[in-house]
Amino acid sequence: xxxxxxxxxxxxxxxxxxxxxxxxxxxxxxxxxxxxxxxxxxxxxxxxxxxxxxxxxxxxxxxxxxxxxxxxxxxxxxxxxxxxxxxxxxxxxxxxxxxxxxxxxxxxxxxxxxxxxxxxxxxxxxxxxxxxxxxxxxxxxxxxxxxxxxxxxxxx
Length: 156
Known about the structure:
Helix content is 52%, strand content 6%. The protein is mostly helical and 156 residues long.
């Protein structure tokens, strides 16, 4: 869906690169702590926008507790996990609900339901709530990264 931007982290990343610490336990600890901040921001933004029919989507927002590596890039995917098991949306993947709430169904008309067409509705408007959550998480992620990096430097 969205990608978290590392704007504001360049000095920290340069310091890590200089000390050959862009990978390893400290970098993984930073990524996991940052992912927790982003996860909380997603949950807060979804709750603020009242995306809580059954709370299944909000409660399912999470990430695996391991860092994924592809070439030299380490990442953690944060998204709503599983399916809704309650209410009228039972069986719908939580990630699909988040995607539709983010991008909407009326921008291109591609996902407008028959019911919406029949009722003359425009579908679900896009909210870009994930972008807003990621933007709100930015300063918190930088703060937690800096704290962990400072702890690493003090322990050297």
